[in-house]
Specification:
This protein is mostly helical. It folds into two domains: 3-197, Orthogonal Bundle (Clc chloride channel); 215-412, Clc chloride channel (Orthogonal Bundle). It is built from 18 helices and no strands. Helix 1 (3-47) packs antiparallel against helix 5, helix 10 (215-249) runs parallel beside helix 13 and helix 13 packs antiparallel against helix 14 (317-331). The longest helix is centred in the first third of the chain and has 45 residues, at 3-47.
């Protein structure tokens, strides 16, 4: 027996275990701080509605902060995917505090955004600190980036299994090794338990009634899931549309969120409701028991796409939850399935379509709603995935496989908008 070789293996295992602990604990702690701060600024906004009129100035501050920082930081989650696909430069640690501050400003003054992007970017920036600390090579940085994504996602949503799988699935068509798979699950649970240690509670959802499977139920699931996929397509295209529009017409970047903030503040004033700003978690919870109006999901798509396209900071995933849950809830008016099941299916299916991650979203659905609805959740995620178009919310994500082949053939027939 080669004891020297065994010793080397043990040292490598110990090194990566230590990296997972550092990444998980610090990313989980950063997510805990973020969630507490986010709750505080959201409550502050809700109790001081007048503060929405300061949204343009909050946007201007975000614009200046990002304009004078490393330009790579503005890419957000796409920077993590680019560095995974082609490792070149370290992710600037400045990304972590900047995206935290930018997201809190966005939510404080009334922008419509999520939290996943913030947690993932903080996780990626924190994890990449280990590159110099442990003298890792560029190939090993692929694993580091997976760890950062996994830790950030698992900790902010309280779904460690889904977080680990999401980090792997989002880079699935790039090179993944066995080591990355095992470490992704380890760091996800470390980050998850770190948030639990800090006493942070996540939102709970419930699907109390799951119908027996039959062809009629299958038919309605198919129809609903196609609509969830089209909603995901509309969300992705809307966000990219506003981003291109602002970039093309406003050359000075700090002015984009300033002007966008003026438009948002005036719009919120005239529609006389704040249900479409912020995370929208209370509306998501209501969707599981109260029928939504058919236009709620459309307005959330419009508000979120405009907010992020203008240059405000935050994630897309919680708004995707809002879109899916409220669409599912509205469909219960005509679809003879339990409202909570439709809302739950939409919750994860729209997310699946917009991020090209049906497996992670299926697992997330079972973690959030229980395994009883898992079969229906999985069907909805898979169908929505195929009907959501070829481009998701992450432009730098590589998409291959059956979906890529399907949409390449569609493009050849002239349907380029898909």
């Amino acid at each position: 027996m080669d004891y020297q070789k065994i010793k080397q293996i043990m040292l490598v295992m110990l090194k990566w275990f230590f990296i997972c602990c550092l990444t998980g604990i610090f990313s989980g702690s950063a997510s805990a701080l973020f969630l507490v701060s986010l709750e505080f600024v959201s409550q502050t906004r809700d109790h001081n509605i007048w503060i929405i009129w300061l949204l343009p100035f909050g946007g201007l501050l975000i614009g200046y902060l990002y304009y004078y920082a490393d330009p790579r930081i503005t890419k957000g989650n796409n920077l993590l995917l680019e560095e995974y696909n082609k490792p070149e430069k370290k992710i600037p640690f400045l990304m972590a505090p900047l995206v935290l501050l930018g997201t809190l400003i966005t939510h404080l003054f009334g922008g419509s955004a999520g939290r996943e992007g913030t947690a993932v970017q903080m996780g990626g920036a924190i994890a990449d600190l280990c590159t110099n600390l442990f003298k890792l090579n560029q190939t090993e940085r692929r694993t580091i980036i997976i760890l950062g994504i996994s830790a950030g996602f698992a900790s902010v949503f309280g779904t460690p299994l889904a977080g680990a799988i999401f980090a792997l699935e989002i880079v699935y068509f790039s090179k993944i090794n066995i080591k990355s798979i095992l470490l992704s699950f380890l760091v996800a649970y470390i980050a998850y338990f770190t948030v639990e240690f800090w006493g942070i509670k996540h939102t709970h959802y419930s699907i109390p009634v799951v119908p027996e499977f039959n062809l009629t139920v299958l038919f309605w699931i198919l129809i609903s899931s196609i609509l969830f996929g089209l909603a995901a397509l509309l969300f992705s295209r809307t966000t990219h549309f506003w981003g291109k529009l602002f970039s093309k017409n406003i050359k000075y970047p700090p002015l984009r969120p300033f002007i966008g903030g003026i438009v948002l503040a005036i719009t919120i004033y005239f529609i006389s409701t704040t249900k479409y700003i912020g995370l929208g978690v209370p509306e998501i919870v209501k969707a599981f028991s109260i029928q939504n109006t058919p236009y709620d999901f459309l307005l959330k798509i419009l508000f979120t796409g405009f907010t992020l396209g203008a240059g405000f900071k935050g994630g897309e995933v919680t708004p995707l939850f809002f879109v899916g849950a409220t669409l599912g809830s509205a469909l219960s008016i005509i679809v003879p399935l339990p409202i909570a099941l439709l809302a739950g299916m939409g919750f994860v299916a729209v997310f699946s379509g917009a991020t090209h991650t049906p497996i992670a979203c299926t697992v997330m659905g079972m973690e959030l709603f229980g395994i009883e609805s898992g079969f229906y959740i999985g069907l909805a995620c898979l169908i929505a995935y195929f009907f959501s178009g070829s481009i998701g919310i992450y432009k730098s994500q590589i998409v291959k496989g059956p979906k890529s082949i399907l949409y390449q053939s569609i493009r050849k027939k002239g349907l380029k908008y898909l």
